[in-house]
Amino acid sequence: MNFEGQSVLRAILAAGMLAIAYPAISSATVIDISAGPSGWGCSQCNAPTSVLPGTVVNLLNPGETGPLQLTLGPGTYSITNAATTGNYSAWNFEGYPSSGNWVWSFLIGSDNGNGTATVLNDDYIAPVYPTQAAAAAGSGTTTWDGQYGNPADQLPSTTTAGFYDTLNLPATTTLDFFIDDYDLGDNGGGVALTIQPLSTSSTPEPASMALLGTGLAVLGLLRRQRRS
To answer: Total domain count for the chain?
Structure first.
C-alpha cells in the first residue's frame, strides 16, 4: 500500500475509534426561539394541542436563514426555562405589542431533512396572560407536554420559571426548535430554553461501528496480501 493509501486507512480507523470513545454529547446550551415577526413556527401550528408529539409539520422561518437547529447525541436531556440567561421570557401570539395574548410555549421536532420535522415535545404553560411579565412570573398553574387534561402528559412544575421536561434521544438527532403558531407577522417575544445533558449513551451507533469495521476489514485484507 502506498503512503496515500496508508493515510486514508489511518483516518478511517481513527474516525471510527473516536466515534466510539467519544460519543456525541452536549454541554448546557441556551436556545432562543423568536416568535416573530422574524422567527420560527410551522404551517400546522395553531395552538399547543394542534401539533401533538408524532405530528409531522412543515417548518416556517420568516426573516431567518433557516430552521433553528441543534444536533445532540443519544441520551437524556433536561429542558428548563432560560429566561434569566436568554433573550426571551414569553411571547405574544397576536396583536403585539398592544394585545394581552401572552403565553409560554414551544415545540421541539426531529428534523426530517426536507423542510419538515416530527414533533417530539409539545410543551406549554396552560393560561394566556395579559402581560409579558405576568406570563414570565406565572405560578399556581399547570405545565404540559402533549394533550391538555391528559394526566400522563402533565409535567411536575406549577410555575413558568420552574418549567422542567426531558428529551430522550435513542440516536444522534438534529432538532428543530419553534413556536406553535403559523402566522408570525403580528407576534412578539419568544421563549428561551436551556438544554442540559442528564446522561449520554456509551453504546456505539451503527454508523460508528460500520466506519470502524470498514477500516479493520481493509487492514485484515492487506495483511493477508502481504503474507501471500
So the answer is: 1
C-alpha distances (whole Å) from 89 to each of 29, 141, 225 are: 16, 16, 65
In a domain, 129, yes or no: yes
- CB-CB contact of 41 with 184 (8 Å): yes
Domain encompassing residue 175: 24-202
* 107: in domain: yes
What spatial distance separates the first Cα and last Cα of the chain, rounded to whole Å?
Answer: 14
pLDDT tens per residue, range 140-184: 999 999 999 999 999 999 999 999 999 999 999 999 999 999 999
**What pTM, to 2 d.p., does this model score?**
0.80
85, part of any domain: yes
> Residue 228 domain-assigned?
no
φ and ψ at residue 7, rounded to 5 degrees: -65, -40
Closest residue by Cα to residue 125 from 83, 95, 77: 83
pLDDT for residue 136: 98
In whole angstroms, give the CA distance from residue 53 to residue 55. 6
